[in-house]
Write a structure and sequence with these properties.
Blueprint: E1 3-6, H1 12-23, E2 27-30, E3 45-48, H2 51-61, E4 63-65, H3 72-75, H4 78-81, E5 85-89, H5 90-93, E6 100-104, E7 113-115, E8 132-136, E9 141-150, E10 153-162, E11 165-166, H6 178-193, E12 202-210, E13 214-221, H7 233-243, E14 244-246, H8 252-255
Parallel strand pairs: 1-2, 1-3
Antiparallel strand pairs: 4-14, 5-8, 6-7, 6-8, 9-10, 9-12, 10-11, 12-13
Helix pairs in contact: 1-7
């Protein structure tokens, strides 16, 4: 059976996955440093945690992790994202002279948000000019849903953000009405069925309703580093298992989606 590998950061998400893994008959190993216990690589590890930990221990575990490429969203057909998005560099973004949304493609090295123009970014001087960033026209997402996707099929999903806040009611439940669920499900199913859409075999896709535009893709993220929101942990486990690939089992189809460090 697989072994779920978790970081030392206890969270509601990691605790939920811990419980789900035990219920599924998996082993669980919660690391307390950036070093792996002897023999863990031979126990079919399946990773969930922070990117800094993933990059530190992937070699020791003998695994590769799947994730969307930096240019995945710009390459997505416009009919599914409903706005202009392009991949560029930090140096280029600093020259923009209009209101724009800017986001680093990997890690949170500066805030992802709408800026008055490129000069408002004010990045840390140590950041390289060729740092990849996504630049898009500003839109307002009224509500967002999170989908864990396995081989182009939805494994589990949940409302995520509403009005800029977590979509939870006072009782702590992840809340959405039936009309929203039907509309967002239709939107992602159309994307998953589109042969022009390239997609990692295991991934998280966020879909939202844009004011004045309708339902479209917000972004895609690695399943192994994404929050669960109200998603079923058992369904998430199946996606995590596919997103973690033993180095000696990497297929040609997987190679495009491998996380590359450095």
């Amino acid at each position: 059976m697989p072994t779920l590998v978790l970081s030392h950061h206890y969270s509601l998400d990691s605790n939920a996955l811990f419980t789900a893994a035990l219920a599924a008959g998996w082993d669980v190993e919660r690391l307390h440093s950036f070093r792996c216990p002897e023999g863990l690589a031979a126990r079919a590890p399946v990773f969930y945690g922070e990117t800094i930990l993933a990059d530190a221990i992937a070699d020791d575990l003998g695994i590769a992790l799947l994730e969307p490429t930096s240019d995945w969203l710009p390459r997505l057909p416009e009919r599914h994202r409903l706005r202009d998005v392009r991949l560029t560099t930090l140096a280029d973004a600093l020259t923009i002279r209009e209101r724009v949304f800017v986001k680093p493609t990997d890690e949170k090295c500066f805030p992802a948000r709408v800026y008055a123009d490129g000069s408002s970014l004010d990045p840390d001087p140590v950041l390289p000019p060729d740092l990849p960033v996504l630049v898009s026209e500003p839109v307002v997402f009224e509500v967002e849903f999170r989908f864990f996707v396995l081989e182009r099929e939805v494994a589990t999903f949940s409302p995520y953000i509403r009005g800029g806040e977590l979509a939870r009611n006072p009782a702590g439940e992840w809340e959405a009405d039936q009309a929203e669920i039907e509309a967002v499900t239709s939107s992602i199913q159309a994307m998953l069925a589109d042969v022009e859409v390239e997609l990692p075999p295991a991934v998280v896709v966020d879909v939202g309703r844009m004011a004045g535009r309708g339902w479209g893709v917000v972004e895609a993220n690695p399943a192994w580093a994404s929050g669960l929101c109200g998603c079923d942990p058992a369904g998430v486990l199946s996606v995590l298992r596919r997103a973690t690939v033993a180095r000696d089992m990497i297929s040609e189809a997987d190679r495009r989606w491998l996380r590359r460090v450095g």
